[in-house]
Amino acid sequence: MAIDQDLLLRTLLAERNKLLGYIGTIIPDDHLAEDIFQEVSVAAVRKQDQIQSAAHLMNWLRNAARLSALEMRRNRGVHAMVFDTAVLDALEGEWDSEDEESSSDQMEMLRKCLQKLGGYPRQLIDLRYGEGISGAALAERVGRKVQTVYVALSRAHRSLAHCVESGLKTIEVSG
Asked: Model-level pTM greater than 0.70?
C-alpha cells in the first residue's frame, strides 16, 4: 500500500534538516543543498504511489538526493566535498539508525542555544548560515579581517556545541 500524501508531507517536513545535513556531506553549498532537497521532495510527491512507508520514503529520498548531488557536482564542476563516497557508503547505515527523538531534541536545543547567543557571534552565525555568506564576503560585510571572522565563528560554534551538549545531558538526566 502506498504512503498517503499527509504522511509523505509530514515526513518531508520533519526530516528536512536531517536530509539537508546528508546532502551537505556531499555538496557543501547551502543553496545548492536546498535546491536538491526541493527537487527530490517534488519527485517524491510525484512517485508517492511507489513509496510504501515513512522509512521507505527516507531511504528513497537519501538515494535520490545522493544521486542528484553527485550529478550536480559533476555538471557544475564542484570539487569540494565534505566526505568521500566511500565514507558516505560506510555511514549509510548510520542514517537509518539515527534516533528521531534525539534529532528533534538536538534541533530544539540548538534553537534555544542560538537564542542565548548574542551580539557579534550571533550576527556572524546569522549571516553565515541564514544568508549563506562565507569567507571574505562575510569579513567585508562586518568590517573585520577574514582571520578574525573565522576565529569568531569557531568560538561561536564551540559555544553552541557546548550549550547543546549540556542541554541534552540535562534532558537525559531528567528524562
From this structure: no
